[in-house]
Specification:
It contains nine helices and six strands. With about 230 residues, it is of the alpha+beta class. The strands form two sheets. Strands 4-3-6-5 form a four-stranded antiparallel sheet. A two-stranded antiparallel sheet has the order 1-2. A hairpin with a 2-residue loop joins β3 and β4.
């Protein structure tokens, strides 16, 4: 067989061999660098290498003070430093911050231990089953306290009930005259009319409104009967 000498072919083979060598070298280099990095990570799992330099680990800090966890943490820390008196004062400040002036007037009007007539008006689903409330917490205390917005008394009373500053008691027969005055108020008459269904007149539930023990202690604290 004749053998032909082709220098260009030899050059091509040499170039191919060189390229394969470079590829192998690059692959080996990547493996070595990867192994080194893995070794460093195993020594310091918390620090990742970026650009060949170790990451600076920042000092561990607490939760974000504006987060839920941060706010709860501050409350718990403050609780450790508070005694019963300090916790009581903080509660009173929190309650007062949620009141409007008319609601404060209602608390003041009930502070002497008196009770005020209150009614709820319901529709009827059947002769024996009351339905939805057409009016709740309509109380004569609005007149007694001389509130600026009498039409808001049901909402004021509902809010004071949710805060635990007032409480509901049974009907008081001794307040019969006051109940008559309350039943003659425009809002109560309108609710009775809207809740009546033909021969079924609206159901009127009578009760009384008094200051709760929490409301009484708040009033005593704010009027200086106990130290600030």
């Amino acid at each position: 067989m004749a053998f032909s000498y082709d220098p260009r072919g030899l050059i091509g083979h040499a170039v191919d061999a060189a390229r394969r060598g470079l590829d192998v070298y690059s692959w080996a280099e990547e493996q070595v660098v990867g192994a080194i990095r893995q070794g460093f990570d195993s020594l310091d799992p918390g620090g990742a290498l970026k650009g060949g330099a170790p990451e600076v680990v920042s000092e561990v800090s607490g939760p974000d003070p504006d987060s839920l966890a941060g706010k709860m943490s501050r409350l718990l820390d403050r609780a450790l430093d508070q005694n019963t008196r300090g916790s009581q004062v903080e509660l009173y400040h929190h309650l007062l911050d949620q009141l409007v002036a008319d609601e404060a007037r209602i608390v003041g009007a009930l502070s002497d231990g008196s009770s005020s007539p209150m009614v709820n008006v319901y529709t009827w689903l059947s002769p024996r089953v009351p339905g939805r409330a057409a009016l709740e917490h309509a109380a004569l205390i609005g007149r007694t306290a001389n509130v600026a917005l009498p039409q808001m008394v049901p909402q004021y009373v509902s809010h004071l009930l949710s805060l635990g500053l007032v409480q509901v008691g049974p009907e008081d027969p001794a307040l019969a005259t006051e109940y008559e005055v309350l039943m003659a108020e425009t809002t109560v008459l309108a609710a009775i009319k809207s809740a009546s269904r033909g021969p079924l007149t609206a159901k009127v539930e009578k009760s009384t409104l008094t200051l709760s023990s929490l409301g009484a202690s708040l009033w005593a604290a704010t009027t200086g009967e106990i130290g600030q």
